[in-house]
Every structure is written in structure tokens, then in C-alpha cells.
Amino acid sequence: MNSPQTLESLQHDFDRIALLPDEKWNHTSHYHNLLLSQLPDDCEHILEIGCGTGTFSHLLAQRAAKVLAIDLSPQMIRVARENSARYPNIDFVLSDVLEYPVPANHFDCIATLTTLHHLPLAAVLKKIRQALKPQGVFLCLDLYRRSNANDLFFDGIAYPLSLALRFMKTGRLSPSREMREAYEEHGKTDSYRTLRQVRQTCAEVMPDACVTRHLLWRYSIIWRKPLE
Question: Are the C-beta atoms of 88 and 112 separated by less than 8 Å?
């Protein structure tokens, strides 16, 4: 059984990960283009929740006038700022998004990658719904917990595909030892929701959200806020 995850444990884990060299490719970056293809045509303001060292923030900044990028790890924010001199339209903020005073009906897009499982799902989805403009888009990529035979079937496909993609993209069959050790330590407190749990909560808070399973142990949520 995993130990309880706390704000302090999250900050500690991701401060450690922030200091490791960036990977050229990983299971999350594989889906960057998929998410970017769902961005509205005219984006003035984008919010990214859990921006890490800013890799996806840079891509968003090329599609919007202003990006607000939030993370609760001081080291992640420090590295992100250092790496973003070419992107003056990104404002990196050290904060817990549930505590941050996000303006209502303000953002054309809100994006979050591999962060949602760290947060109380209904509460953060309600805050995202409130912060989006009408017709604004919510983009999420996260990990799910295996819970049935279908999940195990997709595992059987994902493992060889992951090895092949990583080797083609990086020349390696696995992440660096330091990265593996850091995520193994983080995994001692990490927990995920099943796809059924995600779909149930989305149905309650974001009706008509599209929740899609992807290979490489990820799912996406795509939702457009209706006109009010």
C-alpha cells in the first residue's frame, strides 16, 4: 500500500526530478502534437497546470499571446524560467493551483499533463470549468490505474511499442538510471484513478467531455465549455 502523498512529498519528488537532464522523448511528450491539434485557432490566454520545466509551455507560447504556467515545485519553476528566455509571454508561477486566484471566464485554453492524478478531481475540474471562457477548451493528458482485462490487453501492446519508440527517438531502451530511481521513489506515494472513475467525474462536472484511452498508459480529456 502506498504511503500518503502530501504537498511536501510532491515538492520534494519534483524538485529532485527537475535537476535531472531533460529526456529527448518520453511517454508524455509523444502526445504533445495530439493535444496541440485541439487548441482553439485564436488563443489569447492559456493556463497550464503542472508546467514542470516548461517543455509544453514553450509549445503553448507559440500559439498564444500569454501563457500562465503554474507548478508547486520551486526547482521546476526555477529551471523553467532559466530555460525560457526566448518566451517572454510565459509567466511561471510557484503555486498550488487549488489555492491560486484564477480569474473566471478568462482562458481560451487550460492544459495539464500528468498532473491531474495529484489533485482532487471534482474540485479541480470545477475550477477549470469556471476559469475557461465560453467555447474555451480543456486539454488533459494523464495516467490511469489498471482495473480490468482490457487494461492488461493494452499493456501487452504498450510495452513493445514503448521500447521501439524510445529506441528510435533516443537510442536507448529505457530512461536514465537517475530518472528511473527518481520516479520509483515518487511512485511510492503516487496513485491513479481508473478510466471508469475519470469518466464518471467528468460526466458530473464536464458533460460531453471526451475521455480517450491511449497507448503508453495515458488517457486524454478534451472538453469545450458550452456557451452560457
Answer: no
